[in-house]
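hi! just following up on the protien thing from before. the input was this:
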Amino acid sequence: MISKRTADELRPKSFDDIVGQEHLFGKNGVIRRMTEAGRITNMIFYGPPGTGKTTAAEIIARESDMVFHKLNATSATLSDVKNILSTTNTIFCSGGILLYLDEIQYFNKKQQQSLLEYIEDGRVTLIASTTENPHFYVYNAIISRSSLFEFKPVPPKEGVRALRRALDYLNRENGTEKRAEEETLLYIAKSTGGDVRRSIVLLENAYFAADELISEEIVDGFNVRVGNFDDDTHFDLLSCLQKSIRGSDPDAAVFYLAKLLSLGELISVCRRLQVIASEDVGAAYPMAAAITRACCESAKELGMPEARLPLANAAVMLATAPKSNSAHDAINAAMEDVEKGMGVDIPQHLRSPLFKGYKYPHDYPNHYVEQEYLPKDLADRKYYVYGENKTESAAKAYAEKIKGKRQ
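and the predicted 3d structure came back as:
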């Protein structure tokens, strides 16, 4: 792992030193222009790890003479936030506080809400970062008071600049003159998927293993391919997880779960497991959705490495549960008709405020009475087909009993 001293020395000290993110920090970059104009607003940085989010926050604080505080939401508590906020009225913070909150997706709604009063009245300027879609995990009130900026994977040629600086530093610190061809540095940058931090880790490992020349062969000794985690790999592994569960294979399910967790994919795993519970298990075991949700919330509260336990429980439960995609097919069929513009004329007896002609089912035997619920042009549609499993078979038998006809 890269040493803390090396990481600190190599961290860019100005916008000119940041590699990639030209749209944000280049000569005409929007954040650079805002900072130079003295306009520092609340911001949310989102994008892959190792693309400069933390570095950018530190530079912005330095350029604006604000007091910089940094918290990581994976380990910070509400008390940590309140301790920082309590200093906003002191003489030491007369220039304002810039709070950098890394991995904000791990803060719950209450924790995020605690920031609102302070960012609204300007006592705190918030820069939050996340590797997830902020619209899914950041409280709407914070998003509405912030500017969103996307950090993109660093292009390999830009990554080479950071690697060249790292090699010069390592030679200077260790009194050596080790070399690496431009092609080797480019190879390192390409193999780490735009994550500058990982590429520097890889270079440093190869540096200490090499004699005079850092070669691709030496690099390959450290470049474990499971870590080459680009977007395609991300979606491939999530797909493998879902297909294994859909195929009722708990062994494969826990393997792909382990692989994803080893790459830091906690949030995306939780999201995918909840999709699986409704898409692939669905009506065959309706409680699967609630159990999966509880396991995922537990995992996010625990964090790694303990998070693997509730997630493993969810994966095994889903893989061994009976399967049904009847609800999945039903909603897709209904969505097709909606997109075609059908079903506009809703039955009069279902409309408010008078509901003229509506029959209240609880006033009838078996709490059922026949009446039309679908619009006229969809009156004969059958979106839902009962699945062949115990739960849906029981539901089908019940429907036939109260309606007096086969479903």
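DSSP finds 20 helices and seven strands in the chain.
Residues 330 and 383 are 5 Å apart (CA to CA).
cheers
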